[in-house]
Design a protein that fits this description.
This protein is an alpha+beta fold. It has a single domain, classed as Alpha-Beta Plaits. It is built from eight helices and nine strands. The strands form four sheets. A three-stranded mixed β-sheet has the order 8-1-9. A two-stranded antiparallel ribbon has the order 2-3. A two-stranded antiparallel ribbon has the order 4-5. A hairpin with a 6-residue loop joins strand 2 (99-105) and strand 3 (112-118). Helix 3 packs across helix 7.
Length: 256
């Protein structure tokens, strides 16, 4: 067999495999759930331009250890975990988490910090780089999403993410929310609440933090010098988690 003929057969087999896998993944989505989150996100991706990059700034000095308002708000808004989810699990480790609170302790000083951790919406996103089907994607405005139409559940993106920000759905789900369709056999993570952002609103976590008057989270356009987030970053700075990886994250922290 000639090299050209071999390559042609390999490419044809790969196309068929990906097409069949995507079809199976599509069937995993719960009946009656319209994937409008991804559909709208893609539609809006055609409207947005690279002149905007959405980002988030989190001040750990204002984030108390016992507070989980941002986690609860995300869960309520998107229907994972908590009281607004129909998830059942064989073990606690199977619980999906789009955002979680983590505790960091300085071993030398004993100083303890608490902060929310979610998808960091990297400019150079490892999850996007390793995805074989293009299901992991990044909008022009910097928001990283998962297209569940073509996610085949390979979980390469989960292995590539240095922040452990993605979850894989193992169990059947019911009573989902239209703005956040979910399905067994697919990967999911923080979407920065694109369904809210595209209407001019803050993500649910930021809104909840603001309503509680904690003021620990700021959302805005990192490319707009006059936005609240840009002004705060210029004035007091902000750090990336694992800046050494050179991913240029959309989520920054103060007080680390």
């Amino acid at each position: 067999m000639s090299p050209k003929h071999s390559d042609k057969n390999t490419n044809e087999y790969r196309r068929k495999f990906l097409a069949q896998s995507a079809a199976v993944a599509g069937l995993a989505i719960a009946p009656g759930i319209v994937l409008n989150q991804v559909a709208h996100a893609k539609a809006d991706a055609d409207k947005v331009t690279g002149s905007t990059r959405w980002g988030m700034l989190i001040d750990t000095n204002k984030c108390s250890k016992g507070c989980t308002d941002c986690v609860t708000a995300c869960s309520d808004e998107n229907g994972w975990g908590g009281t607004n989810s129909s998830e059942t699990h064989s073990s606690k480790e199977q619980q999906a988490q789009w955002i979680r609170k983590v505790t960091i302790t300085d071993k030398q000083t004993g100083h303890v910090q608490s902060l929310p951790l979610m998808c960091q919406h990297c400019e150079t996103a490892p999850c996007v780089d390793v995805c074989p089907t293009g299901a992991s994607m990044k909008r022009k405005d910097g928001i990283v999403l998962v297209d569940k139409h073509i996610c085949i559940g390979c979980r390469y993106c989960m292995m590539a993410c240095p922040y452990k920000a993605r979850s894989f759905i193992h169990e059947k789900l019911e009573l989902q929310k239209n703005n956040a369709p979910r399905g067994i056999g697919t990967v999911e993570s923080c979407t920065m609440c694109t369904h809210r952002v595209d209407k001019g609103n803050d993500p649910a976590c930021v809104e909840a933090c603001s309503k509680a008057e904690h003021g620990a989270m700021i959302f805005g356009d990192l490319k707009d010098a006059n936005s609240a987030i840009s002004i705060e970053l210029k004035k007091h700075g902000g750090e990336q988690i694992r800046a050494d990886l050179g991913l240029n994250t959309g989520v920054r922290y103060q007080g680390l």
